[in-house]
Amino acid sequence: MRTLFFDVSTNVMYVGLAKDDILIDYSIRIASRDHAKYLVDRIDQILKRNKLTLDKIDEMIIGYGPGSYTGIRIAVVVGKMLAYAKHVKLRVISSLFFMTSGYEGKVAALIDARRGFVFSGIYEHGNILLEDGYRKLSELQENPLYLKAQTVFIDDRSYMVNPKILREKSLLVKDIHALEPQYLRRTEAETNADQKS
C-alpha cells in the first residue's frame, strides 16, 4: 500500500510518501502565500526520487482545513484533480490533526487565525477531545482540556506527522466532485460584503 499525503494549510508545505504505513520520503517547504506554485512540483519530485508515478499510488490523504483559505483550496483542488485523473482513492483529514498526528498524549493543535483567534482542536491517541473550531485564544486557554494538553502552535518548527495514524483516522471521499475545504470561518471579503449590504 503506497500512500501520498500532503497539507498546505499553514506556511509549512508538507508532502509525504508512505509504504505500508511507514514513512519512506517527505519534503517540506516554508513559504508565505505561494504554495500554489510549488505543490504539484514537490509531489512530482517525491515520486521521481522513489522511481514512482501516480499510477503506482494506492491512495492520497490530504489535510483539507482549517487553515489558510488559499492553502486549503489548493490542497483540495490538487487532491481532486489527481484522484479524478489517475483514479486514486482520496481520503481527507483535519489539517490540525494531520500536522500533529505524530505527537503522543493529549495535544492541543493550533493554527494562527489572526486578531486573537486560532483554529484549534484537541486530540489524544488519535481521538478527538475537542472538535476543530475557530476560537478566541484567550477563551481556549481557560478550557480545562486545553490546560491538560501539550500545546502545538503549528509552524515551521512545530509539527510531527504519522502516516499510519493519518490513514487510520482519515475519511474516504465517496464523491470527489462534492468535496469542499473545511473553512470554519467566513472570509474577510464575505464579511465586508455583508456589512455593505
Written account of the structure:
This protein is of the alpha/beta class and 197 residues long. It has one domain: ATPase, nucleotide binding domain (Nucleotidyltransferase, domain 5, 2-Layer Sandwich), CATH 3.30.420.40. The chain is built from 7 helices and 10 strands. The strands form 2 sheets. Strands 3-2-1-4-5-10 form a 6-stranded mixed β-sheet, sandwiched between helices.
Keywords:
197 residues, alpha/beta, Nucleotidyltransferase, domain 5, 6-stranded mixed beta sheet, 7 helices, 10 strands, 29% helix
Write the layout of secondary structure elements.
Elements: E1 2-7, E2 12-19, E3 22-30, H1 39-49, E4 59-63, H2 69-86, E5 89-93, H3 95-98, E6 106-112, E7 117-124, E8 127-136, H4 137-140, H5 144-147, E9 150-153, H6 163-169, E10 171-172, H7 188-196
Parallel strand pairs: 1-4, 4-5, 6-9
Antiparallel strand pairs: 1-2, 2-3, 5-10, 6-7, 7-8
Quickly count the domains: 1
CATH architecture descriptor name: 2-Layer Sandwich
CATH class: Alpha Beta
Report the average pLDDT across residues: 93
Radius of gyration: 17 Å
Name the strands of the widest sheet in spatial order.
3-2-1-4-5-10
Oligomer: single chain
Uncertain segments are: none
Give a short synopsis of this structure.
The chain contains seven helices and ten strands. The chain has 197 residues and is α/β, with parallel strands linked by helices.
